[in-house]
Design a protein that fits this description.
CATH architecture: Alpha-Beta Barrel
Largest sheet: 6 strands, parallel
Number of helices: 7
CATH topology: TIM Barrel
CATH superfamily: Glycoside hydrolase/deacetylase
CATH class: Alpha Beta
Low-confidence stretches: 1-31, 39-43
Mean pLDDT: 83
């Protein structure tokens, strides 16, 4: 079955905005008190839309202004978390998904995993306080080199290690990797570029491309450094997750990731849920952090994707090069 990009309908946005305050440690917190986490055991009256499956959601930045690209408003994100709770979805942890894919533990019904890419400060200032209010866990895939010193890029200003540590101490955040410094394009020919993780660099002066040996050394060194930095700062040994920059990957990159210690690799492939039979090297995600996704559209799409996955559980991501590069 082929894959196609899903278009989600725009629905109404929540009108009221969250007011944030900062505690003595500097961590932004929603002004409303945290909501009690729903009980683990479900009532027989609560709907079960799917079992033994996890839908992974992908976000990037949050901003109060409606902007094009991978940016949503706090109002939208708040309403999505509220609807996920109201409709009896269970927001699971990174470790729960790992244990499920390793066939060591089941997932609760209606399982959803929330992920944020790149490490923008808007996650710390705006998104994470909302997650704390709902006691919902999340996974952060930062570009590690951006964290110290912080990478400054307008709206997409990155957070600091100090901010990451504050969130990590709450127990709600898992910090994984999106390279040390390879989330960028690289010239691969006179007029063409490709993600640095899969590209063999082109030298305009010589007209030659990077050797295969040099490519492997460059990529592996970056991957190992990103993992060591996270372990060193957070004293966390379970750094085994990786998000493919720009969604691109190939068998050689997968091999290098395994060498570096990453076993659970997240794609930007659309339109499928993750079963126990899903390859840990091609974990599917839905890119829902865009202005074209409404809260109600998100809920409908999760249910639809879960149904499609149930109907065709033997589908697998292609093993050949998957091109998502759009820059």
């Amino acid at each position: 079955m082929g894959m196609r990009r899903l278009t989600l309908l725009i629905g109404g946005l929540l009108a009221a905005s969250e007011v944030l305050w900062f505690n003595p440690h500097g961590l932004a917190t929603a002004s409303q008190p945290p909501l009690a986490k729903p009980p683990v055991h479900r009532s027989s009256r609560e709907p079960v839309y799917y079992r033994n499956q996890c839908i992974v959601l992908m976000y990037h930045a949050v901003n109060r202004r409606k902007l094009p690209g991978d940016v949503i408003t706090p109002q939208t994100f708040s309403e999505e978390l509220s609807l996920l709770r109201q409709d009896h979805f269970d927001v699971v942890t990174f470790n729960q998904l790992v244990q499920f894919l390793a066939k060591k533990a089941p997932l609760p019904p209606n399982a959803v995993l929330i992920t944020f890419d790149n490490g923008y400060e808007s996650f710390y200032r705006t998104a994470f306080p909302l997650l704390r209010r709902y006691h919902d866990p999340a996974v952060l895939f930062p570009i590690v080199s951006w964290l110290n010193p912080p990478h400054k890029k307008g709206l997409f200003h990155s957070m600091t290690w100090s901010q990451v540590k504050q969130m990590y101490r709450t127990g709600l955040l898992s910090v994984q990797s999106q390279t040390f410094n390879m989330h960028q394009g690289m010239q691969v020919g006179p007029t063409s570029t490709s993600p640095a993780t899969v590209a063999r660099a082109y030298n305009p002066a010589t007209g030659r491309r990077e050797s295969l040996k040099a490519y492997k050394q460059r990529v592996l060194a970056d991957l190992i450094r990103s993992r060591k930095e996270i372990v060193s700062h957070l004293h966390e040994r379970s750094v085994v997750g990786f998000a493919y920059p720009f969604g691109d990957y190939n068998p050689l990159l997968v091999h290098l990731l395994h060498q570096a210690g990453f076993g659970y690799l997240f794609t930007a492939s659309y339109g499928w849920g993750n079963l126990q039979s899903t390859s840990p090297s091609t974990i599917f995600r839905l890119d829902v952090g865009t202005p074209y996704v409404s809260p109600t559209g998100l809920i409908s799409t999760i249910k639809w994707i879960a149904t499609l996955t149930h109907r065709n559980p033997t589908w697998h991501a292609p093993s050949h090069y998957v091109q998502v590069w759009r820059y």
